[in-house]
Amino acid sequence: MIVLETNIDDMNPEFYQYLFDRLFENGALDVFLTPIIMKKQRPGTLLKVICEKEKFERLKEIIFKETSTFGIRYYEVLRHKLDRNFENIETSYGNIRVKKGYLNGKLIKAYPEYEDVKAIAQMSGQSISDIYRNAMKYIEEMFFKF
User: Fold this and answer.
1) What is the torsional sign of CA 76, 81, 85, 86?
2) What is the pLDDT of residues 101-113, one digit of tens each?
3) Per-residue b or e along 65-89, where b marks 16 or more CB atoms closer than 10 Å to that residue's CB
4) Based on the domain organization, do 63 and 95 belong to the same domain?
């Protein structure tokens, strides 16, 4: 894994949404911004992009083209991730995908897929928090009841 990062203090903040879209479309695994104080006590933004090594060159090019930066730092990092899969569950609100995470072969977490919960809320007019809570109840009963 590679982390690319740069400090930005002179870019129109409206451009960040477009930048995020381009980075994710081209293989970024994560993109985030952190507010920072730069030299001369100027407020700025730290842009960080996490990617697999083979995406590095393309993402570096996008950052140079789509931001005001003149330099990018990068370094290799290690990552461990849970084994995971998705399973569909049928709730009283409708079908929702559940992301399940395993450590050493044991299920340790499961959460409803946000986009499914959001879509049901938009279509049904129900509260997103009610739908999420309902889905979590199903998940608890289906996967964690002992």
Assistant:
1) negative
2) 999 999 999 999 9
3) ebbebeebebeeeeeeeeeeeeeeb
4) no
